[in-house]
Amino acid sequence: MSAPAARRVEPVAEVPISVTVNARAVEAVVPARQLLADFLRDDLRLTGTHVGCEQGICGACTINLDGEPVRSCIMLAAQVDGSSITTVEGLASEGLSPLQQAFKDNHGLQCGFCTPGFLMTLATVDPDEYPGTDGIREAISGNLCRCTGYGGILQAVRTAWNRVEDG
Amino acid sequence: MKPPPFLYCRPRAVDEALAVLAEHGDEARPLAGGQSLVPMLNHRLARPGVLVDIGAITELQRMERRASDWLIGATVTQRRVERHSLEGCELLSLAVPFIGHRQIRARGTVGGSIAHADPAAELPAVALTVDATMVAAGRDGQRAIGASSFFAGPYMNSLADGEILSHVIFPVLPSTTRCSFKEFARRKGDFAVAGVAAAVDITDRVVSKARLTAFAIGSNPVRLPGAEGAIVGRSLDAADLDTAAEAAAAEIEPWDDIHGSPRYRRQIVAALLQRALQEVAP
Amino acid sequence: MADAFVLGSRPVYTGTHVTRRQDDALLSGRGAYVADLRRDDMAEIAVVRSTVAHGRIAAIRTAEAAAVAGVIAVITAADLTDVSPYPNFASAYTQTPGTFPLAQDKVRYVGSPVAVVLAENRYIAEDAAELVEVDYEELPAVTSLEDALDPDSPRLFEHWPNNRLLDLQPDDSEAAAILAGNRVLRRRYKMGRHTAMPMETRACMAEVRDGRLHLWCTNQHAHIARTTLSYVLPMAERDIRVVIPYVGGGFGLKQHLYPEDVVASWLALRHGRPVRFVEDRAEHMIAAAHARDHMVDIEAAIADDGRILAMRVQVVQDLGSAEIFPGAWCPALTTAAHMTGPYDIGHCAVSVAAVATNKTPGGSYRGFGVPEAVFALERFIDEIAAEVGVDRLDLRRSMLLQSEDLPYKTASGALLDSGSFAESFEKVVELGEAAHRRAAAQHGTDQQSRVGVGYAVLFEGVSPTHHGASAHWAGHESCSIEVLPDGGVRVASGVTDQGQGTTTFVATLAADALGVPIETVEVELADSDSTPYGLGAFGSRQAVIGGGALLLAAGEVRDKVKRIAAHMLEATEDDLVIEAGRVHVAGSPEPAVTMAAIATRAVIRTMDLPPGMAPGLEATARYEPELMEHVPDERGRINASASYANAAHAAVIRVDLGTGEIEILDYILAHDCGRVINPPIVDGQIWGGIAQGVGGALYEDLRFNDLGQPQTAFMDYLMPSALEMPEVVIKHFESPSPNTPLGMKGVGEGGTVGPAAAIGNALAHALAEFNPQIRETPLSPAVVRAMIPDRGAAT
Fold this sequence. Notes:
Shape of chain C: globular
Number of helices of chain B: 11
Number of domains of chain C: 3
Structural class of chain C: alpha+beta
Helix content of chain B: 25-40%
Largest sheet of chain C: 7 strands, mixed
CATH class of the largest domain in chain B: Alpha Beta
Helix content of chain C: 25-40%
Distance between the termini of chain C: 60 Å
Number of strands of chain C: 28
Oligomer: heterotrimer
Strand order of the largest sheet of chain B: 4-5-8-6-7
Largest interface: A-C, 60 and 57 residues
Shape of chain B: globular
CATH superfamily of the largest domain in chain C: Aldehyde oxidase/xanthine dehydrogenase, molybdopterin binding domain
CATH architecture of the largest domain in chain B: 2-Layer Sandwich
C-alpha cells in the first residue's frame, strides 16, 4: 500500500470517554471490559437502568443511545465515547412524562423491574412506525415482562399514543 | 456474567485497525456492533486479549448505490438498512426485520452478522441467495470473496488472519426477480428454527432462474439445487410447489437441537419453501 | 363472617382503582432493588458451581483464586464449621436431604454451589471463580422421574433407602371397589419442567451494624427468612434484621432461603464488610428453583354417560436434587388436593410420591401443583367424552358443582363454601363458542391450518397453610396499626410486596377500615425490625389473611376512636360515623372531631381521656383462619386453604399444519375471587397469570440430557413476549366466601393454572381428525407437528 503509515493505535486497559448522559456531560476513565449498564449503574449511580440477563434478551437495560433504543448490557462503556445517552432518570425533568403517567394510570407495571426498559424503548421509537395495537406489540417485543401479561402495558401505550381504535 | 479482562482500542481508519490486528495476531479480535460478541464475552465464551473496536471507522459505514449493486460497509447497522429500503435489494429488506429486535438492529451491523456466520442468522442466507460479494481488507489490500466460499462452518468465515470484512456488495436484481424470505422462530426475534430465502426470476410466467436457500438447519446456509431444478421452467402451480418442497426436504441434512429434530426441520423447510414459492409465483 | 371483619362506616376506596403508591418511584427509576443498594466498602461474591450432575468432590483447590488481586476470601463447605444444615421439620414422613449451604462431599446437580469467592467487585470475583479447581469423581446421574422411581437407580442420598423423599399411599379401598365394578379408563399426563423466571434475579446484601446482621434480600418473607437464618447460621434471632426492598417479581421462586443468603451473611459477619450477591441470569437458570415436572396417572370408573364415579390417582413430582428450604414436595400434595376439580366426584384416592433426581432443585412457583391437576383432569374429561361419545361440555355440566351443592367438601377434603363453578363455565362457553365460530369463519378455508376451542374449569385453593411446605409454620398473618398524634396512620404488617400491589391494598383497607384519607396512611412492610411476625407472600394469601389481621387491628383502633370521640362530642358511640378522618354523629356532619384531636388526646393529652381509659391509639392483631387445616387426616384429606377461588378458561387457537405452531386467537377467562379490592390489580394478576400459564403450556421447557447437563439456556427459555400473548377477555364473578374477611379469596394463581388444560383441549379439538394424543406439556411446535401426518393427509 502506498498510503502513509497508519497512526499507531495502542490498546489500553483503561479507556477515557466523554459522553452526554441525561443532558449532562460526563468525562470518565472506564475499565476496557466494563459493561455500559454497569458504568451507568455503578459509576453514575443511575440505577434505574436494570440488568435482567446480561445477554441482550430481556430488554430491562434498554436505554436511548443517540436516538436509538439499545441494550446497555451488551455494550461496553468504552464504545459510547462521543455519544449521547438518555436513561429512565432523564425521561422527565420533574414528575412523570405522559408515557410514564399512562403506565401509572393503566396499571402498566407490577414489580417495575422491566418497566424502565419498556419506557426507554417506547420513548425512543417513532409511534408512526408501529401502527395499531399489533404495532405496539411489535414495538415492545424486545422487552420481556413477567408480571403483567402485557395487558396493562398495551393499554398504557394506547393511551399515551392516543390509540383507541382497537384492543 | 462479566467479560474477562482485555485491552481495547478504537481506531479511526482501516489501516490503523489492520496494524493492531497484525501486531496482536490471534489475540486480537475486531468488534463491530457487538450484539453477538459482547454476549459471548459476558458468557466468557470468547476471550480476546485485544478488542479492536471498528465502530468509529467512517469508511466502513458507507452505503452506496452503484451501477449494478449496493456497497454496504461492514459497520452499517441493520437498522439503517431497515430504514432505507434498498431498491433492487428486496431480499435484504425482507430479511432484516427478522433479525433480533429493534434494539439489536440498532447496534447490530451487516458486516458483523455476516462475518459472525451464525448458522441461524438471516444475512448469511441472503448473501448466499443473491451471490453477494464479501470484500476483505488486509495489509496487502482488498480481496473479494464470493458468498459460496465465504462461510466456512458454524461461526466460521474464510477471512484470513489479520483481515477484516470491509464491505459487502449486494447485486441489484432485475425487476423480473421476485423474492421471498420465510423463517420459523419460536418467538418473533428469536433465532430461526429453520428458514428459507428465495430469489426467483420469472419470464413469460415461468421460472427462468431460481436461487433457493435454507438456513438454520446446519453449519451454514445452503442452496437447494434440487428444489431449484424442480421449478426452473415451471409455472409454480400447486404440484410444482409440492415437488420443490419434497426435493428441499430430501436434499438437506438438518441438525438436531432442543427446538427441532432433523425430521421436524425437514418438515418446516418444506412448509416454508411452499409458502415462499406461493408468494413469488406468477 | 364474624362482625370483626368490617370496613368502616363509609368505605370509599375498596373496590375502586386506587393507583399504586410505589409507581412514581418505579416509573422514574428511583425504586431501589437489592442490586441497586451500594455501600462504600461493599464486597461482592461469585459462586463456583458444580459442572457435573452427580459426583463426589475429591478435591477443591482455591490457592490460585485466592491469590488474585482484589480477592478477599475463597471459601468452601469446610470453612463453614459453625453453620448448621437446613432443618427438616417433616422427618416424620419425608427423607431428609440434610442440605448444607455449600456442597459437602457430594454434588447432586449442575449448578450446586461448591465454593464462593469474595472480592472487591463482581468482575474480579468471576475472574477468581474461574481459577477454583474442583476434582469430581463422577457418579451415574438420575435424570428423570421414571428413573428415580426405579428401585435400582443410583441413590442421590446414601442414607435414604431409595430416591423417594416422600411416598404417601393412603387407603384407596373405597375407590378400588368402585373401579372393580365399572368401566375403567386410564391415562397418564405429564407437565414439563419450567419455572417462575422473575425479571429480577435473586440478590442479597448482608451488612453488620452494631453487632447485628442486616440482610437485604429478595426473599418473599422477612420473618421466615430471619428465623431460618437463625437456625442455619446459627445465631440469636434478635441479632438478625431482614429487609425486603423493591423486588422484581417473586412468583414463589423467592420463597426459598437460598444458600447464597446464608453464605453472604456468614461472610459479612466474618469479614466485617458488607457483602452483596447478585445472581446472574446464567446462574439463575441452574441454581434458582425449578418447578412443575409432574406425572399424574389417573384410573377412573366411568358411568355410561361418561361421568366419573371414582378415581384412583398417582401423583409423582420430580424434585430435582431436593436440596432446598423449605422443601419442595408440597406441590405434589397440592396436586392431590385438586384432583377432583369442581366436580361432584365422590371418591378420589390419591397416592403421592416425590422423588430426587440430579437436576436443579424444584421449588415453589405460582400455581403450585394446581396446573398439573387441572391439566390432567381437564384433558382426561375431554378424553372420556371422546371415548364414550358424549359432548365434552355436557359431560362437564353433568358433574359440575351447582350453587345448591355448596358448601361442598371434596373427596380430597377441600371445603368449597362458595363459588360460581357452573355459572363461570357457562359464560366462557358462550364466549368461547362465539369466538370459535368467528375463527372458523375467518380461517375455515385455509388448508394450511385448523382452528379449535378448548375449555378448562377449575377451583384453586388460595390462602393455604405453610405447613404443607415447611411442616413448621402454620397460616397466620399479623398487622399493627398506630394513629399518630396528627391523625396520620402507620400500618405495619407481615405481608410483603413483590409487585402484586400489596402495599396499596394494605393502605386501601386501612383507610376504609379507619375512615381516613388514604394519603394519611403510611404502610410499613417487609422489615423484620419494624413489622410484627408474619408469614409474607405465598399462595395468594395476603389479601385474605393479611387483610383479616388488618381488619382486626383496625377494628380495635376504630372502637377506641369512637369511644374517645363519644366522650368529646358527648354522644353515643353507636351513633358515630368516621369519614375522611372526622368523627361525627351519623346524619349531622357538625360538630365533628378530627382524628388528630382524638389521637392527640390518646397519646399526649392523656389526662383528657375518658376516666379509666388507657392511653394509646394502636393495636396489633393476628389472624389465623379457623377452618384451615395443617395436617391431613388418615386418608390424606385436608382443607389446607382458607379459601377457594374458581375460574373457567377458554382458548381459541389456530394450528399451523406446516410448522405445528399454535397461535392463540382468543383467550377468555371467567374468574371469581370473591370480594374485589382493586379491579385493575385483579385484572393484572389474571393477565400475568395467563402469560405464565401460556408460557408453560407452549414455550418454556427446562431440559436436561442423560448426563444431567442442563440444555436450556436463557435464550432458549421462551417466555412469551407481547407478540405471543393474546388479548384476554376477563369476566368477573363475585361469590364472597362466608368464611373469610370481607368474603375475599386470593387472586394470584387463577390465570396460571388453566392455560395448559384449555390450550391442550383446544388442540385436541383442532386436530380431532388426526386423533392426537395430548398428554404432555409443553406443546411445542415440534411436538404438535409430530401429531400431524405429512403432506397429502393434511392438505
